[in-house]
Amino acid sequence: MISGHVFIATSLDGFIARPDGGLDWLEHPGAGAEDHGYGAFVAGIDGILMGRATFEVVVRFDPWPYDRPLIVLSAHLGPDAIPPALRDRVTLARTLPEARAEAARRGWRRVWVDGGATIRSCLEAGLVADMVITRIPVLIGQGVPLFGPQRADIRLRHEETRAFASGLVQSRYAVLP
Fold this sequence. Notes:
The chain has helices at residues 38-43, 52-58, 96-105, 116-124; strands spanning 3-11, 15-17, 47-51, 70-73, 90-93, 110-114, 128-136, 144-145, 156-163, 169-175. It is an alpha/beta fold. Helix 2 (52-58) links the parallel strand 3 (47-51) and strand 4. The mean pLDDT is 94.
């Protein structure tokens, strides 16, 4: 069975990106000196399921920041949206069931779910087992929220909160059935 896992940062006011998708606010003084658990998290991940909007931002990163294979969930992107240098690492899926089937075909068990809309879809579908949310001490005022309207309450159990010397605060939650 495939389980989804979230590892994401938000501004203190709950945004994961600026309205234009910008992530410049993630550059927090002293944050680069600490790993914040990222290495341990990624070590336990088989692959990444990422939304289109997030992919359209990170595809411009040089160097490519991921060492795990990636499935991009998008009903609109075509194969030409994947740069030739990434075609052996990135696959497109039009629907969440299609993405799940592809992950299962590849033998993935633990999937990093990334991107606001994709996280919300996976939470609603009951596919997320846990979430690590790191709050960066900056207020950006507006942007892309991590969470939004949903059909029903999603119950969580707080597992741990850690404060880092950089000022970042990270909480881990289990998603309850």
